[in-house]
Design goal:
alpha/beta, disordered N terminus, 23 helices, SH3 type barrels, 23 strands, six-stranded mixed beta sheet
Length: 818
């Protein structure tokens, strides 16, 4: 097992770049991954960067590279892909500049084109900075390069030809050339008309940069000029008329001047680029980097690649992993779960052509792709750690030139792997230690796997050796996995199951491919009983595993159905309770409104009493009526059905004890109710005043309130006894007397004082005050007695007492409200 020192060194991120030998890259077909990446690049820079992709040296670099691809992928999914492509490769041009050379017009245009692309990319990433901060930082370019673009682009037309805007001198020379050439052509046409009889044809052409006419050989003596060539037949002389020689000479001079001016311009522009050559090279690198990340995003989209969770230790715990190259080939890939970690070995067994090697390559490509900053083909829940080295032993390494057999070459490769393997090494071995005596090969394979695990390497190997399959039975460093084989169809399933070894099924496969039955029968006889037993055991275990998987799938379906049904019932119950709560609230609100109206009627009646002059007997009769109504409201009246009783039974009622007309208490409704109907499925309908509500039998209690029944709602005091008068005593919870909770009634008549006191108590109750101070003074005692008498029948008052010495003594009454 790896030491703690080795693991802490790995976790620090101080590892070097991954070592992936040429053999390993060949075994894993790593080049095909790079080719697939390059094909998705939009320009030559990205194509080259993909083929030259190297592995990241540190964990930080891997995280940053994957983060950039993730940003490019997010932009692609949002419909705003990175604006890449169309930029040329400048490396050869810049090398010549470094050597002191000057650039041609086309090369200058290439520089301007690349810088323009870099500037556009920079502006795009500035707009998307919040969405792609890593790309914005990595693709930044020097803003001073804009001046180079502004200097180069005006010198050339879009088709690459020189523009008159390159310099004023060039513009003047080109204008002079145009005028000179036009005069020359005018003269040439005039000569063609005058010497038409001597000309072979009615046209002019150029020879050695001079304008000439086709003159017949038999007439050349009548034509004055310089011969610059003859036709292939010898019947035509190409002659420059003497009349245009001077203009031709001038045209050559102007052309030379134009060329010198153009060279001066290209030299000046080349020097400007040379001064900022590193910034230009950085812009080229930024564009190549962006094209590479954009290509990786497209690859992730095409193959449904993911960005897994990172672990601090070397591990590959892949969920629903797929072989990316098989996906590229259009093969239907069966996803599989697989795991390898430091100090452990995964032993994959099963029939030939069942996909054992695919498992190894899937692991190896995932390790390499992550280390190269590429997403991998698996579920996002997968966990990966970084391996510094991937070592493989796959295929036939027989070498005739080196006089090595397949077995010898394999042993040499295994020895090299053992020598360098450590905690950060992933080792992939296909058919380990074959090509020799099976017993000795099995023993050698066991020793190699034990040695690799001892050195801390993470190992995955394929085998048909029964001894290797049995290692997991007594050593937890080893774990079996098998590729599936359907005995009914006699074909591999390509699925991977961990925890069980796989049967090789050689005879079954031979039967499928047409091996004669008599040969198979004889072969079966040759198999030792013990050997048959192991394969039979494996086959039985696989059958049991498949049965368990079917049972688990069925149980999962049942669980999902039950969960869905539970959610439906919860929703129905929630809706039912919401309806009941709404009805209860409406009923309670109606009762509260009725009480409020009753209070208003009492006040109005009292005011009418005070405003009319009635005889003493009439006053007494009206007051008796008012007191009766007040007592009814104070005592709760018809509010009784929705209020809790003061005693309760906590034991649920049995079904046989329940029937229509029975009064019961429902804790959920906080009310005593009457059963109206007994329904099916343990439900009853109860009457809550005028409201009918559904309840379950388990909710019902004997008449009385449950222990957790809360106090009645404010402003409603059902079944209230007359307020209790008691002597002054210490009240630690008594609030401080203030103007807000104090009412001064001194100087008022008794009726007026009572009415004012009731209004004050009503306001205190609505404002949430529980204690009121009523100042009535000492006097004759008539006002005090009237106030205290009214408090005894007031539905708001729970108890009251005279004031203490610091509160005004018997000239004050302190009342506690409900």
């Amino acid at each position: 097992m790896p030491s703690s020192l080795e693991m802490s060194s790995y976790a620090s991120g101080s590892s070097s770049a991954i070592i992936c030998s040429e053999k390993t890259c060949s075994d894993l077909q790593w080049g095909r991954v790079l080719e697939a990446l390059a094909q998705r690049a939009k320009g030559p820079l990205g194509h080259r960067a993909a083929l030259d992709l190297t592995f990241c040296a540190t964990r930080q670099q891997v995280t940053q590279a994957l983060g950039q691809v993730k940003e490019a992928y997010a932009l692609l999914q949002a419909g705003k892909p990175l604006p890449t492509g169309g930029a040329p490769i400048l490396s050869p041009i810049l090398e010549r500049l470094r050597a002191g050379g000057a650039l041609t017009p086309n090369e200058l245009l290439s520089v301007a084109q690349l810088l323009s692309k870099a500037r556009y990319l920079q502006r795009f990433l500035q707009e998307q900075k919040s969405r792609a901060p890593l790309l914005h930082e990595s693709c930044a370019t020097d803003p001073q390069l804009d001046s180079l673009i502004d200097q180069i682009q005006p010198c050339f037309e879009p088709d690459g030809s020189w523009s008159d805007r390159a310099s004023s001198r060039l513009r003047e020379l080109r204008q002079e050339r145009h005028a000179t050439r036009q005069r020359l052509l005018d003269k040439l046409h005039d000569i063609m008309q005058r010497y038409a009889s001597t000309l072979q044809d009615d046209f002019y052409t150029e020879r050695q940069g001079r304008f000439v006419l086709p003159v017949r050989v038999d007439s050349h003596e009548r034509f004055i000029g310089i011969v610059h060539g003859t036709s292939a037949s010898g019947q035509t002389l190409f002659m420059e008329p003497r009349a245009i020689i001077a203009l031709g000479n001038k045209l050559k001079v102007v052309d030379a001047q134009i060329e010198r001016e153009q060279v001066a311009i290209t030299t000046r522009l080349s020097e400007m680029i040379r001064e900022q050559i590193e910034a230009v090279a950085a812009a080229e690198s930024a564009l190549a980097h962006a094209e590479l990340k954009a290509a990786a995003a497209v690859l992730a989209q095409d193959l449904d690649l993911c960005f897994p969770h990172f672990e601090p230790t070397p591990v590959m715990d892949l969920i629903q992993a797929r072989h990316p190259l098989l996906q590229l080939d259009g093969v239907k890939v069966i996803p599989s779960d697989m795991k390898v970690e430091s100090g452990h070995a995964l032993i994959v067994s099963g029939p030939n052509a069942g996909g054992k090697t695919v498992v190894l390559k899937t692991l190896g490509l995932a390790a390499c792709m992550i280390r190269a900053g590429l997403p991998i083909a698996c579920d996002p829940r997968s966990r990966v750690g970084l391996f510094d080295r991937v070592a493989t032993d796959m295929g036939d390494d027989q070498s005739i030139s080196k006089n090595l057999s397949t077995f010898s070459a394999q042993v040499r490769n295994l020895a090299g792997i053992l020598e360098t393997a450590d905690v950060s090494t992933l080792v992939l071995l296909d058919e380990i230690a074959t090509g020799t005596d099976p017993r000795q090969g099995e023993a050698l394979a066991t020793g190699v796997l034990d040695g690799l695990c001892a050195r801390g390497a993470a190992v995955a190997c394929t085998t048909h050796y029964e001894g290797l399959k049995a290692l997991a039975l007594g050593d937890d460093r080893f774990r079996n996995a098998s590729v599936g084989f359907d005995m009914s169809s006699m074909s591999p399933t390509f699925s991977l199951a961990t925890g069980l070894p796989g049967a090789s099924s050689a005879l079954a496969i031979a039967r499928r491919f047409g091996m004669p039955s008599y040969v198979l029968e004889r072969a079966q006889q040759y198999l030792a009983v013990a050997e048959q037993g192991f394969d039979s055991l494996v086959a039985k275990l696989n059958d049991e595993r498949r049965a368990l998987e079917l049972a688990r799938s069925a149980a999962e379906r049942e669980k999902q159905w039950a969960e869905a049904r539970r959610r439906e019932l919860d929703a129905e119950l929630k809706q039912q309770r919401s309806r009941e709560h709404k009805l209860l609230s409406e009923h309670t609100q109606g009762l509260l409104s009725a009480i409020q109206r009753a209070r208003e009627e009492l006040r109005m009646a009292q005011q009418r009493l005070r405003s009319k002059k009635l005889n003493e007997e009439a006053l007494k009769e009206i007051k008796r009526t008012v007191d009766a109504v007040a007592q009814k409201v104070a005592m709760g009246g018809e509010l009784e059905p929705v209020q809790a009783k003061t005693t309760a039974s906590t034991t649920p009622l049995s079904p046989e004890m329940i029937g229509p007309g029975q009064r019961v208490y429902v804790p959920r409704l906080r009310a005593e109710t009457q059963i109206v109907d007994v329904l099916k499925q343990g439900q009853v309908r109860v009457a809550l005043g005028a409201v009918k509500v559904l309840a379950h039998i388990d909710e019902l209690r004997g008449v009385g309130a449950s222990e957790d029944t809360p106090a009645p709602a404010r402003n409603v005091r059902p079944n209230v006894k007359p307020a209790r008068f008691f002597d002054a005593a210490a009240d630690p919870d008594l609030p401080l007397q203030t103007s807000d909770n104090t009412c001064d009634l001194r100087g008022l008549r008794a009726e007026e004082a009572v009415a004012m006191a009731e209004q004050f108590l009503d306001r205190c109750l609505n404002e949430g005050r529980r204690v009121a101070f009523l100042i009535h003074g000492h006097g004759t005692g008539a006002l005090r007695n009237a106030i205290r008498s009214a408090l005894q029948t007031n539905g708001y008052v729970q108890r009251f007492r005279p004031g203490q010495s610091g509160e005004g003594g018997d000239g004050v009454t302190v009342a506690w409200l409900v």
